[in-house]
Amino acid sequence: MIKVERRLVQPRWLSVGVPVGSVAVSFVVIAVVLLITGHDPLHTYRRLFIAAFDGKAAWNDTITLATPLLFTGLAAAVAFRMNLFNIGGEGQLYIGAITGSGVAFWLGPHHAKTLTIVLMCVCGAAGAAIWALIPGVLKAFGRTNEIITSLMLNYVAGLLLTYMIFDSASPWRDVSTVQTRSFPQSVALQPSQFWPAVHPGGVVIPFGFLLAFGVAAALWVLFRLTRFGYEMNVIGDSQRAARYSGMRTRRKILAVMAISGAVAGLGGASQVGDFSHVLDASAQGLQAANYGYTGIVVAALGRYNPIAVCLVGVLLGGLQNAGLFLQGADFPSGLVGVMQGIILFCTLGGELLIRYRVRLGRRARAAETAPAAEVA
Amino acid sequence: MNDSLVVQVLAQAVLYGTPILFAALGELLAERSGVLNLGVEGMMLVGATMGFWGMQRAPGPTSLVLLLAILTAAFAGLVLAAIHAYLVVTLRASQIVSGLALTIFAGGLGLSSYLGNDLGLADVPPKHQFSDIDVFGLKDVSVVGPILFHQSALVYASWAFVVIVAVYLARTRLGLNVRAVGESPGAADAMGINVVRYRYAHVLAGGALAGVGGACYSLAITPGWTDGDSLVGGAGWIAIALVIFSFWRAELCLVGAYLFGGLSGGLPSALQAHGYKIKPEFLNALPYLMTIVVLVLVSTSLARRRIGAPAALGIAYVREER
User: Do residues B270 and B21 make contact, with C-beta atoms less than 8 angstroms apart?
Assistant: First the structure.
């Protein structure tokens, strides 16, 4: 008989070993899916690896695609850690791009680069934080389900983005020439406003990528070393216990939503400053890649640990990169989402092994099962 | 009279509300048994894809083909729901994360795109589609004719399902058991109800209904298949919200579904047909904004009276820790 019982002590190595094992299992499952649908899994995996991680050009693209995932992954991790399910990272990223680019367009090219970058970051983060505070306020004061409200605002933010470029004369839209008046596009950043990048060994590492690591380090400190982080953990475990012990849960919800939104917003500002240099509302632009939703996958795979989120973000950036450049017979469209889903399913299933242990045998001894009630 | 704006909006509201209604009824069943499934959007997309595929491949007369297509869609939704059920019921994973994973797995950049492209469904003209039935020859009756008596078979099937689900939950022994499992699985277990079996059954049924809801798009509303997530466009999420503001009751789902059907499909197309110039982005944002508004209204009164929500919703049942 198979018996599943709760672990009283969770060994540390399991929290690394199980996710890694789960990912390995998921690659076997994905191979089966590929085989069933008539694709050669080994060939696909080889192409995937080459496209994502073999050579400088591959790494450049992987880092480019990983950058927004680091931000959205960290944004989701902050909120999910407190059992606050902000799945509005997608929309918050758009809003961050809108406000971040807006301040750059308003400033114009004749200011110091540092000032431009700082203001883009501040405005991108602030705009997205305010956007995230909408579901935050509704959750804190009206107990409205933040999952639905934050998700609905993603669609609204996407439509707002489209409206600003395609259907209005907003300051973001370029109306300077005849061509741009008939084929709508955004105002562009001037080269003096582009975010810098470093080039160690020929690989381009954009400023946003480094900024994301800085944010991750700051969040790690916040979670581990501050009272704020401690209270987040308590509220995440039991909101009621937290309230009884005098923690201000409502204020914490607002603060965490704002931080989560601000991090996603930095991702949006970085999209404009580092990469596109315009506010790209087209079908191939910001709205094409589902960065916000993928961020949830990144956060869950990283078990909401900021450092792990960064590593997972780079891996999934590689997967996105492969998905974008390999479409066709060896890399069917939609495989990226399928792979993300299967990896996440396997990781979720593997969680069981962290929290419980599976014993084979007749019956667990009574002495061992008795304290389980205490844990529950 | 029947060409007036109001009648057209209402007739469209019924059409566009039907997929939301199917999906919401399915989610209602799952949630009443205590399992939150946030994968509705993904299940609907795969349902739309597989329903369209079934319609293209099945032989026979139109009505049989469409029935087979609907069954294919239902089966696709059921298979996806089985993944969720296994993860959250058997493996006790987080219902929220698992549901999100299901939507990402099955969504517009995932399985539905994979299947649609692999099966060659893009830009294929539909061989068959649901057409409007003239019930009892009443379609030209003033006002109610176009709204109630000139709709597709899916609409009438959805009404049947509303009655079935409402009666099942409120008036049958099985329904009572389901509610017990959703409210207090420990007590239900003590009564001899198999909690795991009930939860599996209702999550699977919910998946099947979500699949049918998705097929409403690819077989009736906008016949065809397009890559990406525009085919369903958030209706799955609206369905989840709908369950909340129908206070977990099937008959109220019907009202809510048509409200959102009217906002998402009826109003924009009718306004355009009548030559009103309103920015499309604003009209398209309306159902999402209204979802938030209604959810806020409902959750404040809900917080005061606490009606409807199954007490054990979202919580894994572990017999040893009861």
Answer: no
Taking an 8 Å cut-off on Cβ atoms, the answer to whether B83 and A345 are in contact is: yes
Chain segment A350-376, per-residue pLDDT in tens: 888 888 877 776 554 544 444 444 443
**Tens-digit pLDDT profile for residues A137-170:** 999 998 888 999 999 999 999 999 999 988 887 8
Nearest to A334 by CA among A290, A375, A269: A290
| Residue B160 tokens, joined | 């049947």
Could you give the ipTM of this predicted complex?
Answer: 0.90
B162 close contact with A: CB closer than 8 A: no
Secondary structure of residue A326 in the 3-state scheme: coil
Distances (CA, A) of A282 to A162, A301, B32, B321: 8, 30, 41, 52
Query: Coil, strand or helix: which one is A234?
Result: helix
Q: Do B104 and A332 touch (CB under 8 A)?
A: no
Q: Is residue A107 part of a domain?
A: yes
CA distances from A328 to A321, A335, B53 (A): 14, 11, 21
| A237 contacts chain B (CB < 8 A) | no
Domain containing A156: what range?
68-309
CA distance B203 to B9: 33
Q: What is the pTM of this model?
A: 0.91
* Structural domains in chain B, sorted by start: 5-321 (1.10.3470)
Are A345 and A22 spatial neighbours (Cβ–Cβ below 8 Å)? no
Calculate how close chain B gets to A337, using CA atoms only, in Å.
4
User: Which chain B positions have a beta carbon within 8 Å of A147's beta carbon?
Assistant: 38, 96
In degrees, rounded to 5, the angle at the alpha carbon of residue B175 between the alpha carbons of residues B169 and B176 is 110
Please judge whether B109 and A290 are an interchain contact, meaning their C-beta atoms are less than 8 angstroms apart: yes
Q: How far apart are CA B46 and CA B48, in angstroms?
A: 5
Q: Which residues contact B34 (CB under 8 A, 6 or more apart)?
A: B181, B182, B183, B185, B199, B310, B312, B313, B314, B315, B317
Domain count of chain A? 1
Q: What residue has token string 């996105």?
A: A320
Residue of chain A minimizing CA distance to B302: A143
Residues A351, B116: C-beta atoms closer than 8 Å: no
Ranges A7-11, A101-105, B52-56, B62-66: which has the least confidence: A7-11
Taking CB atoms and an 8 Å cutoff, what residues of chain B touch A143?
299-300, 302-303
Smallest Cβ–Cβ distance between B91 and the set A152, A296, A349 belongs to A349
Whether A340 is in a domain gets the answer no
Measure in Å the smallest separation between the Cα of A334 and chain B Cα atoms.
4
Neighboring chain A residues of B240 at a CB cutoff of 8 Å: 148
User: Is the minimum CB–CB distance between B318 and chain A shorter than 8 Å?
Assistant: yes
Question: Are A266 and A125 a contacting pair, CB within 8 Å?
Answer: yes
| Residue A357: Cβ-neighbour burial (10 angstroms; 0-12, 13-18, 19+) | middle
Judge whether A184 lies within some domain: yes
Nearest to B281 among A149, A163, A372 (CB): A163
Tokens at residue B320, please?
A: 């040893």
The DSSP letter of residue B134 is E
Give residue A361's identity as a one-letter amino acid code: G
**pLDDT mean over B154-172:** 94
**CA distance, residue A115 to nearest chain B CA (Å):** 34
Please tell me which residue of chain B has the smallest CA distance to A324. B109
Closest to A113 (Cα-Cα) out of A264, A270, A273, A276:
A273
Size of interface A-B (CB pairs under 8 A): 166
Classify residue A334: in a domain, yes or no.
Answer: no
